[in-house]
Write a structure and sequence with these properties.
This protein is an alpha/beta fold. It is built from 14 helices and 13 strands. It folds into two domains: 219 residues, Bordetella uptake gene, domain 1 (D-Maltodextrin-Binding Protein, domain 2, 3-Layer(aba) Sandwich), CATH 3.40.190.150; 122 residues, D-Maltodextrin-Binding Protein, domain 2 (3-Layer(aba) Sandwich), CATH 3.40.190.10.
Length: 360
Amino acid sequence: MKKEIGMDRREFLKFLGVGGALSIPLFRATTAVGAKWPTQPIRVVIGYRAGGGTDTFTRALVAGMEEPLKATINVTNMPGSVAAVATDFVWNKPAEGYFWAGVSNYNKFLRAMKYHATVPWRDWQWYPVAGTYQGWAVRPDSPFKTFQDFIDAARKKPITLSHSGIGGIWHEGDAIMAKAAGAKFNYIPYKGGAPATLALIKGEVDAVGNGIHEQVEFLKAGKLRNLAVFTDKPLTVGTLTLEPVTKYVPELKPYTPFGGDVTMALKRDTPLDILKVAYEAYRKALDNPRFEEILKKKVGYKILLSPTEIDKVAARKESVTAWTFKELGIAKADPAELGIPRPEEFEGWWPPKEYKPRLT
């Protein structure tokens, strides 16, 4: 039975081990600080190049935030080190609500890779934009006709595989897949999913492992051919049916579905009323028809969580990734030394004593 694209909120919470009420609170500005904000243009700094998933989904969402905020939102790209460059730029700006980080996956890999020292659940207030799925694709003339051909070849000798950066979400998915399949790859990093996909089309690599949203237009146009998607059920994209990776590597089922989260953030010490006004505008933008059209076109789905659920998800995702990176030999820092709990210990650890929710 084919599985339609998308994941409802109950399924998403179950997958992450997060509980909570189904109601999503909206806020109203009640004090002078929030009432006066914004009085100047807002700048969203995206940590990847233009054209990739983070860029596409973020631009679509913030366009819908301008009207409720009655403000101009300028979007710029500042790629580098899986969004650490953009993160650092925003981190060094005043916490006044005028600089947003447009990154991915709650920056869950930055501490483990020693790219940035900020703690996702402690230092940032997150606004999830969209969820995505990972997939692997080749050129139409590739000798790899199936995912089985692909991993069989990679078991004999490494094949070149492009993605959006060492230590990023697609590198993580590639590494998990490679270990389970007993395959070897030469990873070629690019500054974003879009250039990683174009590298394959140009023949610079043998395959790409990134978001389906970054492949979909080329798949429909016949310029790429998908081998598998990181799920345990087929996914239907228009007239295409994408095979689940578990058909070829059943050991990957516990990791499915695997993909990325496009996320925006403000510094957590931003005045509370500004965070509330921003959250209300963000929630309205999620229901903007233009944004919903982009989600459907690019194979993304909404992540409808309350602010405290978002905090927990950010912490849990860092836990899973940091310890996965350590196991895979990718991590540059020991998660134990960083105080990051093991995934199996997470529920007993959360919330830590120093956790203080900002939006409830």
